[in-house]
Structure formats: C-alpha cells, structure tokens
Design goal:
Blueprint (H helix, E strand, L loop, with lengths): L31 E7 L3 E13 L9 E9 L7 E6 L9 H4 L1 H4 L2 H6 E6 L11 E3 H5 L9 H22 L8 H15 L4 E6 L1 H12 L4 E7 L8 H25 L10 H14 L1 E2 L7 E2 L1 H13 L3 H13 L19 E3 L2 H8 L7 H14 L12 H4 L22 E8 L5 H10 L4 E9 L8 H13 L8 E2 L5
Parallel strand pairs: 4-5, 4-7, 7-8, 8-12, 12-13, 13-14
Antiparallel strand pairs: 1-2, 2-3, 3-5, 6-11, 9-10
C-alpha cells in the first residue's frame, strides 16, 4: 500500500422530537463528594454521580448503561445549569467540571452549575474498549487497489465486532442523537425546565442536535468550532484538508517574518518535506525518549500544535528532527507489542461512523477522495490515517443511525456560534454554512485569528459569550473580534 494521510475528522433527514422525548424518567441524581475541583486553583467542591440510561432510547426496557456526570456548583446567584462538552468525538467530558476555573470566566462560574459528563461510549460512561493488539494493527497506509481496500474493510468489520464483544451494544448506539437524548434525560433528572449549553468542536454537533430535538428545553447555547453535519463525503474531506493546509501556510508565513522562529530564514516547506521523508521511515521521537515517531503521528501532532497555535513549538519540533541523521531504510524499531488480552478505549469510529454516511466500498471512489484531499492539502498529505473517518468507516457494516442532514432549529431560542477564521480542524466554512441554514436562529461571531478554541481568546470573545450566557444578550450580527498577536 502507498502511504497516504486522509481527512480527520447523504440523505436528508429532518429530526424532530419523537415519542422517545417524552419517555418517563423519574430518576433523581445522588451526588458524591469528589473533593476540591482543583486542589491548587479551585477550592470549590466537585461532585460526581451516575445516571442509569437505556443504551437504545427506543427500547428503554432493554440494556442500560451508567452516564458518568460531574458538577461544580454555582458560587453566587444561580441562574441554572450550564452543560458543557469538549468535543472529540471520544473526549471524556466530566473533567470539565474539575477544570472549570481554567475554561470558564469567574462570572460564568458564579452564576451556573457546571454540569459535565462523559458521553456514552466514552470514559466512565461505558467507554468502548477494543483489543489493543487489534488496534495496533490498524492500517496506517491507504489502499492502492480494490484488493487492499477490501482488506481495510475486512479489518474495520473485525474491529467493530471486537469492540462490540468487549463493550456490548453501546457500540451500535454511540451516535450523537443518542447523546442528545441522554442530555435531556439528565436535564429531567436534575429537575431543570431548561438548560444552557456550551459545546466545543464535536460538542457543537451535540448542541445542534439537542436544539433540533428539544428546542424548547434550551435557555441559551454557545457552540464553538462548529461541525457542519450537512456535508457530503467529498465536501467534508475537501474542507477538512483545506483548513489544515491553511494553518500550515499561516505557520510558514509566521516563521518567515519572525526572527525567533527556529526555522527563520529557511525554506520551511522544504524542511517539512525532509522531516516527512524521515518520519516515513520512523525517527526517534524528540518528545518521548525511546519511542519512534512516524508520519501519521507527526501530522496529528502538528495539527495539535496548530490548535493553540503553538508555532514556536512546531518550529522547534521540525528543527530537531531535521537535524537528526537520516534513518536507515528499514526505519527504527516500532514500540513494544501489546500483551495478548489487553484492551484500550477507542470510541472515535463508533461515534463518527454512526453520524456520517461514509461507507466507501469501491476503490474508484476511495482514490477520488484521496485525490481531492491531496489537491486541497498537498503539504499536509490530507490528514493522518489513524484519525481518518473515510478509512475508519470504509465498509462499516450498517447504515448510520444519524446520517447527515440540513439543520432545522424551529422553535429554538437565538443561539450564539463562535469560530476562528483560521481553525486547523473545524473549517470556518462549516460555521458559515451552519449559520446560513439557521440564519433566523443563530448569530455567528468570528475570531479573526488562528487556533481551535475561541471563547477565552481575548476580551472581545469572552465578553460576548459571557453576556449572552448570563444576560441572554447577543452580539450584533456578523461581529468580528480581532486576532491576538502570535
């Protein structure tokens, strides 16, 4: 198979609240003291709880799981609850209650209980676990023909069955609509008539679909680094690749004008190509002594640094690898093999493949998608295979529970969308398109800078979000906040 990175991260379906919404839930939450939220920075007590919910909301009498929830109570005149989610998919959310002082302003923490939870299939909420040795064999290259694509499809199906064996039917119900229904069950258990919500990255999709299903249960909602769940597969991979390439271009421009850049005065694109050539063979990892760094991990780590952005750190990483001697043709030895019987959590595919109709089975289409990505992101090689939904979902054996559709927010209150103009992961075009779909309901605030998270960038972004969440006063349409110096 030839090496190829692909994109990170249908039918029209209008979702409306079904009879499932009204399913009885007489549970209440029993909280357990979890000590100081942060022993150093936050002496407020955090609490945790478990809420038993059906794996399949259409069959509430069948198998259940426990949703792990954490709370940091408001310290002042309480407005209500602010449910929060960090994205992923696959990131545990309960930690956000314990990290609240780092993520939300003092004004927000004074007025809201921060309610954070691990979404179904993640962390302490029946985290989806799969055989570690099978995950270690995940293909890191792209099929070069139909036979190799068939091998990838066979692997994906084996992986899904393995994860199901270790985790149960939650693998079949890890979609975002199910997470939204879990949120409303949590709202009822908390005794709240409405909720406020702050969702980031993939958490924006949770917010979008909650507002679509339960519009009258939303008091206020801020969604950041937005997903666009209306995109077809070609539009998705093209925009995913292009937004990463945009960040790479911005990095090279910064390095050219910044004397403190470790690569200042050099052809950064040429350095990048030399480093990629080394990583194709495997190089000693500068950040993990004894470990080997290969191309997919290098690209993913680069995107991680662009999220900040940490351009100085990215330049130092490339300079360090570029200075190393060229690896031998066979590459450095890979890390130690896992022991038989070990498992590790892997929920990304289960969620993404139930949310998106990415079921490529024909090599012609697969190759066309690779071509689209290469054209959009020649330097970034598309994006790393280990986080590529097109490869992960190839031949997924069932139709998605929650396929793409145009967002409908009939009956919802005004919602605040925030997005960076240069986001390496969530393309700005996604936010613009979601706003167009919901123009009567959403207001889009643009941060004219770089990075993935927007809320705490500067006074402009922070005050706009705080004023909306607390006082329900939105910024004027098409507000732009200036970029911070990088």
């Amino acid at each position: 198979m030839k090496a190829l990175g692909m994109a990170l991260v249908g039918a029209t379906l209008v979702l409306t609240a079904s009879p499932v919404e009204a399913a009885p839930n007489h549970q209440s939450i029993t909280w357990t003291d979890a000590g100081h939220c942060d022993p150093v920075n936050d002496k407020v007590t955090c609490e945790t709880a478990e809420l038993r919910l059906p794996v399949d909301h259409a069959r509430p009498w069948a198998e259940t799981f426990e949703l792990h929830v954490a709370r940091r109570k408001a310290t002042g005149a309480r407005i209500g609850v602010l449910m929060v989610n960090p994205g992923g998919p696959g990131d545990p959310g309960s930690r956000l209650a314990f990290q609240a002082v780092r993520n939300y302003s003092p004004e927000v923490l004074e007025r809201f209980d921060i309610i954070a939870f691990d979404p179904r299939g993640v962390g302490a909420s029946r985290g989806i676990r799969c055989s570690a040795d099978l995950l270690a064999r995940m293909p890191m290259t792209s099929p070069a023909n139909q036979s190799e694509l068939d091998q990838l499809i066979a692997y994906n199906r084996e992986l899904r069955e393995d994860c199901r064996k270790h985790s149960g039917p939650v693998v079949d119900h890890a979609d975002t609509v199910s997470v939204a229904r879990d949120m409303d069950a949590l709202r009822r258990a908390l005794g709240e008539r409405t909720i406020s919500y702050f969702g980031h990255s993939y958490g924006s999709l949770i917010g979008q679909q909650y507002a679509e299903l339960f519009p009258r249960r939303v008091r206020a909602m801020t969604i950041s680094a937005n997903m666009d769940h209306s995109l077809g597969i070609r539009e998705f991979v093209a925009s995913s690749a292009a937004t990463a390439e945009d960040s790479f271009t911005s990095f090279t421009q910064w390095c050219a004008r910044t004397e403190s850049c470790a690569l200042h005065g050099q052809d950064v694109a040429a350095v990048w190509e030399r480093v990629l050539a080394k990583a194709d063979r495997g190089v000693p990892d500068p950040d993990r002594p004894g470990a080997t760094l290969r191309t997919p991990e290098l690209i993913w780590r680069t995107i991680g640094k662009f999220k900040g952005p940490d351009w100085p750190g990215q330049a130092r990483l490339l300079a360090t690898i570029d200075a190393q001697p060229a690896p031998p043709a066979h590459g450095f030895a890979a890390g130690a093999a896992t022991e038989s019987g070990q498992t590790r959590e892997f929920s990304f595919a289960a969620t993404f493949c139930e949310d998106w109709r990415f079921r490529v089975t024909e090599y012609r289409e697969f190759a066309r998608l690779a071509e689209i990505q290469r054209a959009a992101a020649p330097r970034m090689r598309g994006l790393p295979p280990g986080r590529d939904p097109v490869a992960l979902c190839a031949g997924w054996p069932s139709a998605p529970n929650n396929p793409q559709h145009v967002l409908r927010l009939d009956g919802a209150p005004r919602i605040l969308m925030i997005n960076a103009r240069h986001d390496p992961v969530s393309a700005y075009s996604w936010a613009v398109n979601v706003h167009r779909q919901t123009r009567g309901t959403t207001v889009l605030l643009t941060y004219d800078g770089w990075g993935h998270a927007v809320y705490q960038r500067n006074d402009c972004t922070r005050s706009a979000v705080d004023r909306y969440l607390i006082d329900q006063k939105l910024p004027v349409a098409d507000t732009h906040c200036p970029a911070n110096p990088v």
